[in-house]
Amino acid sequence: MTDRESKEVQRQGTDSNEAELIERAKQGDAQAFQALYDKHKRRVYSLCLRMTSNTAEAEDLTQEAFLQLYRKIGTFRGESAFSTWLHRLSVNVVLMQLRKKSLPVVSLEESTQGGEEDTPKKDFGAEDLALAGSIDRLQLQRAVDDLPPGYRTIFVLHDVEGYEHNEIASIVGCSIGNSKSQLHKARMKLRDLLKRSRAEKAGNS
């Protein structure tokens, strides 16, 4: 058996093991639910942290996501991978929290300010990777943390998590055009923050 084949057998074994855990958790088996929690908690926590940039809040939202999972696991039908289903459930938990805190996903004030320099230079949604030079990941993470919450949500969902604009529109409750516009503004803001950060770094050295 080749290395690849043995990995495939291992993966199938893991999948069937997870399917068994899910079935047992649906029947109210606490140990099975704990095993699912242990397996997925790190991924859910890192998603919550990326979307909120606040460790205490990310911990609370991770707990809330698994509480929702406990209530809703009976509705999981296996039409998509369990990790994908849990990922969407977690995204919804975070967005519900952002709405409760009245952090608008679309800030009209920010949309109307900025004048000419805010005019898009490209089509909305076009791949915009002109973040010049190599960026250290920590610097990028800090800049993402500094984005306004609405921009950060769209940026994380699209550029980090890989959701399409139509999916984001339906998750967040905005139009597709709005999602594209917010992403474009988030990227421009990010470029600005990174430029400033690089200038400060150069000034300090």
How is the topology of this model organized?
Blueprint (H helix, E strand, L loop, with lengths): L2 H24 L3 H23 L2 H18 L9 H19 L7 H5 L24 H10 L2 H12 L4 H8 L3 H29 L1
Helix pairs in contact: 1-2, 2-3, 2-4, 3-4, 6-9, 7-9, 8-9
What distance separates the N and C termini? 55 Å
Q: Uncertain regions: pLDDT < 50 for 5+ in a row?
A: 103-134
Tally of individual domains = 2
Question: Total helix count?
Answer: 9
How confident overall, as mean pLDDT? Answer: 77
Query: What's the CATH architecture name of the largest domain?
Result: Orthogonal Bundle
What is the percent of helical residues?
A: over 70%
Q: What letter string, H or E per element, gives the SSE order?
A: HHHHHHHHH
How would you sum up the major sheet? none
Radius of gyration: 20 Å
Topology-level CATH name of the largest domain:
Rna Polymerase Sigma Factor, Chain: A
Structural class call reads: mainly alpha
The CATH homologous superfamily of the largest domain is called: RNA polymerase sigma factor, region 2, helix turn helix motif
Q: Tell me, briefly, the overall form.
A: elongated
Number of strands: 0
Quaternary organisation of the protein chains:
single chain
CATH class category name of the largest domain: Mainly Alpha
Strand content: under 5%
Q: Could you characterize the architecture of this molecule?
A:
It contains nine helices and no strands. It has 205 residues and is mainly α. The protein folds into two domains: 3-100, RNA polymerase sigma factor, region 2, helix turn helix motif (Rna Polymerase Sigma Factor, Chain: A), CATH 1.10.1740; 126-204, Arc Repressor Mutant, subunit A (Orthogonal Bundle). Helix 6 (137-146) crosses helix 9.
